[in-house]
Amino acid sequence: MDTQLPDIFQEKRLLGEAGDTFWRRALAVGLIALAASVALGFAAGDHGRSFFFAYAVSFAYVLSLSLGALFFVVLQHLTRAGWSVVVRRVAEGVAATLPVLALLFVPILIGLHQLYHWSHAEAVAADHLLHGKSPYLNVPFFVVRWVLYAVTWGLTVRAFVGRSLAQDASGAPELSLEMQKRAAPAMLLFGLTLTFASIDLLMSLDAHWFSTIFGVYFFAGSVVGFFALLAVLMLMLQRAGYLRHAVTVEHYHDIGKLLFAFIVFWAYIGFSQYMLYWYANIPEETGWFLRRQTNGWGWVSLLLLFGHFVLPFVALLSRAPKRNRKVLGAVAAWMLVVHWVDLYWIALPELRPQDPLPHLVDLTTAVGLVGVWLASAAFIMRKRSLVAERDPRLAESLGFENA
Amino acid sequence: MATAPVLLDNSHEDPRRRAPLVLGEPDFGAITEQVCAIVEKPKPPRAWYVAFGISLTLTGVLFAMIGLLFLQGTGVWGLNMPVAWAFDITNFVFWVGIGHAGTLISAILFLFRQRWRTAINRFAETMTIFAVMCAGIFPTIHTGRPWLDFYLLPIPNQMGMWPNFRSPLLWDVFAVSTYFTVSLLFWFVGMVPDLATLRDRAESRWKQILYGILALGWRGSGRHWHRYERVYLLLAALATPLVLSVHSVVSFDFAVAQLPGWHTTIFPPYFVAGAIFGGFAMVLTLLIPMRAYFKLENIVTTRHLDNMAKIILATGTMVGYAYAMEFFMAWYSGNPTETFVFVNRALGPYAWAYWTMVFCNVVVPQVLWLRKARTTPLALFVVAMIVNVGMWFERFVIIVTSLSRDFLPSSWGMFTPTWVDLLTLFGSIGLFLTLFLLFMRLFPLFAMAEVKSVMPQGGLDIGPHHGHGQYWGEIPRQHETQFAEDDR
Hints:
The complex is a heterodimer.
Chain A: H1 16-44, H2 49-78, H3 85-95, H4 98-104, H5 106-110, H6 112-115, H7 121-126, H8 128-133, H9 139-170, H10 173-201, H11 214-239, H12 249-280, H13 283-291, H14 297-316, H15 319-322, H16 325-347, H17 360-381, H18 394-398
Helix pairs in contact in A: 1-2, 1-17, 2-3, 2-9, 2-10, 2-11, 2-16, 2-17, 3-9, 3-17, 9-10, 10-11, 11-12, 11-16, 12-14, 14-16
Chain B: H1 28-40, H2 46-72, H3 87-98, H4 100-111, H5 121-142, H6 168-201, H7 205-214, H8 222-255, H9 267-293, H10 302-332, H11 336-347, H12 351-363, H13 371-375, H14 377-404, H15 419-442, H16 448-453, H17 484-487
Helix pairs in contact in B: 2-15, 3-5, 3-9, 3-14, 4-5, 4-8, 4-9, 5-6, 5-9, 5-15, 6-7, 6-8, 8-9, 9-10, 9-14, 10-11, 11-12, 12-14
């Protein structure tokens, strides 16, 4: 039993120059890609619909990862977790991009009429179902709701990330208690806002369709995406020389376990939704899935079944792959790709039911948004320590071993 | 047994150190004495006889009611078209739900390294086993022809008759029997070291033989412990998906149908959350009186109660989320029948049941936001009792209100339980308690070996190490026997 803990203050834990270079480059790539996307959107000649759908998918993608990070941070305080202290700050950095995402939401508002059928007054007048839903699905209330989500997430970020940073300076254990106290109500608000945000952003793309589990499905995917991202980010940071001793294979093992668990949870939720609608076979419910099973979209569905569940399930089942940085890194990187495919599969059949292959604009928008978002994360973290260095449970995390 | 010192309240959190889970600084021997005393005292306390008498009577009532059912047929129950499923399935789902806390505690909390689980896991697992047994009664008897129950199993036969594999009722058979088997194995394997302790302490011949057989030749060698820990981890990993699958499959019984109020996609996780909610409430209902009666506050500390109350609050909130989601989507779907069903629940003839459910499951558990309520045993006991009632009503509301008023007003009908229905329900509670009371007199109700592993002497706090347990052997018995003079 080795009681010698690594000294956190000897670690390279500030992004420094490398971070500055990174955010500048990521921002440049992101902006160029976004500009290209806008140009492609104009060139498509469909009133920007393909651009806005591409934007909605990739916005949902970066939003889901940031929300996954926020969930992780709040959960660690709620459960008084010890093992995760050395990786929590990176998650806080990802969650702290949520205010930036509020700005990136503006294009969705601009493209509201291109994205959402229910936003057209004449469509609502002609459609009895949409008319019935109009007390919820209308433009002013949509905007009000997103303002509420943004405020809730912003305040949550401030409550947790702010106190965590304050603890770096003061080392006060009371701050941990304050965060623990706020974790339960924060989690409650998080659950509600995430659910309705997913309904608004993605489910209402087909305003006729409904599923009570949809919010949970989006949540499951978000958390899968976040744990994959956490593994990839930690590996990249360590390769660049940061936190070399603080983060060990034991932490990767735990991230791998959680990634595995939520991959199974995602499959469980996805199966519940699909099986129950398939079995009852009511046309108003199956139509949504029918579009995702015909005209080539069935292949995307199968890609999700195997790529988002079967393969990673087999790959991460044993202990060894979770403790092997290369294997875990490869699976995590793959999960980051299929998580995007999942969101693409939710949104795009509403635009192109005949054409499952992504267009160039889908890819450039993804690169653009991920670039800008990563740049903002790096910018936010540029002067912060990469580890919650005076967290009272840091020693427990540094010495953590899986039995 | 050391006289109980004043125990400190360990429910306050200091982030700098982990709170002690066993209070009063006992040694290993004291824990053994304390837990074994419940079993080894020659005569149980008077309260035990009273409780046992009542529950045994109720068990008798249960079997009388089942006998009546077999003699007379299902007409003795109140169910009829359109409510062809009523108390039988409600009781089944209720009891299966109760059976969720045990495996959640022993498997999922184990995988999450929640060390406090060691004080309550045996208790909860035992409850699981007996609750699933109670649950098993109802599908078996509800056909009215239980001698044909083997049709449920896919047994090759000359008639070429097979169960309908597309029916969730058949999936139930597989899901519940798998769950029961794995829970039983898990429970038994976890008990082996403790059974060996009882064997080694047993003073009568038949006890030595009984515990000797059950202890499977356990000697406590390093190799035994190594194998034991391995098996425990594997069983935990196998049991974890089962905790989710059983109640998901139970929810499929309803959700695959097209009936409004049953057919909704959130049912599987919602049922699982509800099951854990109800299961933890039942654990607290039994644990709190037992803890007070046998003075176990040093093992089942305030912190344990606090944590369990938090799990009840968390799962109760998930259940509340599901209620709200169902209501919202019923409206959002624009399906008038769906909307009607939910309005009918809240305002229709079964509104009293609906509001009982909301009051018990959503309103009352909100007091658990208060620390004071979570750490006061009496308050917690009352909340747990109310949640038990609420979870029974939840199943009743889902099942009966949806059936009683569906698409065609001409085929609406009400359900009224008969006295046989009611006595069968109460009888099943009697059976559950009888089995539990017998168990606590025969087997260790607390996982001694595991509790010892989370004590400071267990070594888990020495250096960076977290896990199930390192066990450094029993400290020799210090008190020859507290009850030696009572023994003969």
